[in-house]
Backbone:
């Protein structure tokens, strides 16, 4: 018995000592290989966009294609971003319109989704399940199915060709997932915290604002990012609802550019790049909140 | 949030210390304050969902001439859509697009999640890079790839010619054979990060100790994945697949900008067709009927979606 035990002990000891050497395993090789392939897949198109945007129009049309432009030029960026030039004026206006619409959408989405997510998580009022299902169903329906009636409706209310029409529409695009995310978040906040606040004399609303909301900041940030990106990138509704040139948002504006300067690929790539920067930066800085919110909220619940 | 509440505690805020009234209306009245929290959401949803649905259904039974009154024409809109050969061709395109996109994006997204889950230096950066295609707009994506696929000066054509694989420029987006696969590639590029995020979130919920136990029992990496990880991910996989399928069925921007449905309608899918009917041909009645048909198809999928979504809730109560 005793000798048996020592031999087990010995074997373990040997196994432990062997570990640091760590032979290269198949699964590791496979993982690194996949990682590199996926990085190339994600990055090559972006790199090509950036590279093209730094070429002159002539250099962009050379064969074979050059990966690193021999003469780097910033002319396209300068033209887009200088308020003096005609193109720049237009581009900056689209940019500003996009920022305005996206920010308003985000503020409204957070203001509406936070109390709703909280109520769906903590209260048990009649019809709660039905409402929640209705909210989720919205996620299923093609944006475009609503396009025709919304177009006619907005026309009736005289909202065609206004930013308000877009803000209202984008708001409801983002709401279902936002409410769902936040509900999952509030599910994980102990109700006892609220009791404690109530015992200390806070009203239910005060407890919500002072205690619960600050705890759910990561969820709120995730919701805000989500709403902002949806609004920033949306195309179909902006295409249909807006006609005045000075109201266009970036995606539609970009298309206008494309139709007008078909052969100016470097210019278009520069515009695409500038348009992508804000969302990419926002997302890279705040993505951990997004993944955290999904993990803590949605998926777990 | 690290502290997790006993689940039973949820929901007692409103009803504690009160006798439960029998009547639903009495209960609703007692808890009127609860509704104020969801009122804004409900109003917004009603304004932009319930009303449009009703209006689409109404319009689908009318012929809508560009000038003059709408004329009732019963089921004519529906029958003319379904009997047209074009509808079935477009349905076929839609299936091709949806099924291939979903499968490819799912495989690549899951692979990305498994890779980005491992611990290594720079993991955050890698995750960030993978997510870039997902956050940039569809319009920018479309133009980047139109440029990559450009037949004379595009990257694909240029590289292949440079390598001597082809001798004349390769026509991609204007070819009935290659346009759809090219669109699918772009779609997969755009969507795989979404699947990665969902799977990554799902992977966090797999209990570490089970994996360790499996490892001690001598399970290979594959066996650990197959018998421990996968069963835990079932719920996430179902929801992610459903969401991806719906996303693909509803896709508009990529095909619309990159090919406009062409060449020879080979990349027209349901949604682009509805849009063209409504806003190019201005045939709102027919387009509405088409929407209603899509609606019914989506509804049946919504049923499964809600079932999958609320499955956890039911278990809890």
Residues:
């Amino acid at each position: 018995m005793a000798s048996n035990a020592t031999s087990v002990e010995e074997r373990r000891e040997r196994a432990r000592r062997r570990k640091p050497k760590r032979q290269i395993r198949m699964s590791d090789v496979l993982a690194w290989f996949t990682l590199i392939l996926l990085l190339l897949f994600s990055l090559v198109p972006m790199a090509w966009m950036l590279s093209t945007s730094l070429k002159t129009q002539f250099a962009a049309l050379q064969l074979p294609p050059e990966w690193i432009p021999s003469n780097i030029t910033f002319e396209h960026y300068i033209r887009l971003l200088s308020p003096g030039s005609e193109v720049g004026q237009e581009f900056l206006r689209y940019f500003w319109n996009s920022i305005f619409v996206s920010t308003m959408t985000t503020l409204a989405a957070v203001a509406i989704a936070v109390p709703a997510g909280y109520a769906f998580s903590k209260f048990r009022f009649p019809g709660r399940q039905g409402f929640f299902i209705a909210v989720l169903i919205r996620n299923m329906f093609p944006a475009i199915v609503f396009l025709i009636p919304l177009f006619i409706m907005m026309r009736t209310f005289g909202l065609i060709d206004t930013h308000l029409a877009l803000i209202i529409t984008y708001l409801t695009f983002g709401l279902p997932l936002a409410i769902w995310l936040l509900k999952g978040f509030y599910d994980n906040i102990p109700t006892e915290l609220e009791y404690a606040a109530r015992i200390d004399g806070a009203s239910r609303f005060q407890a919500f604002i002072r205690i619960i909301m600050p705890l759910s900041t990561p969820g709120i940030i995730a919701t805000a990012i989500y709403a902002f990106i949806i609004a920033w990138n949306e195309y179909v509704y902006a295409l249909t609802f807006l006609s005045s040139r000075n109201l266009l948002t970036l995606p539609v504006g970009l298309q206008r550019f494309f139709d007008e300067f078909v052969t100016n690929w470097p210019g278009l790539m520069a515009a695409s790049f500038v348009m992508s920067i804000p969302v990419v930066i926002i997302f890279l800085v705040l993505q951990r909140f997004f993944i955290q919110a999904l993990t803590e909220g949605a998926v777990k619940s | 949030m690290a502290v997790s509440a006993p689940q039973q505690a949820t929901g007692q805020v409103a009803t504690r210390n009160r006798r439960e009234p029998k009547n639903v209306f009495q209960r609703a009245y007692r808890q009127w304050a609860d509704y104020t929290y969801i009122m804004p959401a409900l109003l917004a949803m009603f304004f932009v969902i319930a009303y449009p649905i009703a209006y689409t259904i109404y319009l689908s039974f009318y012929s809508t001439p560009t000038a003059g009154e709408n004329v009732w024409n019963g089921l004519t809109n529906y029958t003319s859509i379904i009997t047209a050969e074009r509808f079935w061709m477009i349905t076929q395109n839609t299936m091709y697009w949806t099924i291939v996109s979903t499968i490819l994006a799912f495989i690549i997204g899951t692979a990305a999640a498994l890779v980005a889950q491992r611990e290594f230096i720079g993991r955050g950066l890698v995750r960030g890079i993978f997510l870039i295609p997902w956050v940039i707009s569809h319009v920018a994506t479309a133009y980047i790839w139109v440029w990559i696929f450009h037949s004379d000066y595009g990257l694909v054509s240029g590289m292949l010619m440079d390598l001597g694989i082809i001798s004349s420029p390769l026509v991609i987006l204007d070819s009935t054979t290659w346009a759809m696969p090219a669109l699918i590639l772009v779609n997969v590029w755009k969507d795989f990060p979404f699947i990665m995020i969902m799977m990554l979130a799902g992977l966090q919920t797999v209990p570490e100790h089970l994996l360790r136990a499996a490892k001690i029992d001598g399970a290979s990496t594959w066996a650990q994945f197959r018998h421990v990880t996968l069963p835990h991910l079932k719920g996430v996989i179902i929801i992610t697949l459903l969401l991806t399928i719906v996303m693909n069925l509803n896709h508009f921007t990529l095909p619309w900008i990159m090919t406009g449905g062409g060449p020879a309608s080979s990349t027209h899918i349901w949604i682009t067709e509805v849009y063209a009917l409504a806003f190019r041909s201005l045939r709102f009645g027919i387009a509405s009927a088409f929407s209603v048909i899509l609606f019914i198809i989506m509804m049946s999928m919504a049923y499964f979606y809600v079932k999958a979504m609320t499955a956890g809730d039911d278990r809890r109560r």
Notes: The CA atoms of residues 148 and 154 of chain B lie 5 Å apart. The beta strands of chain B are 62-63, 71-72. The domain at 60-140+183-311 of chain B is CATH 1.10.3720.10 (MetI-like fold).
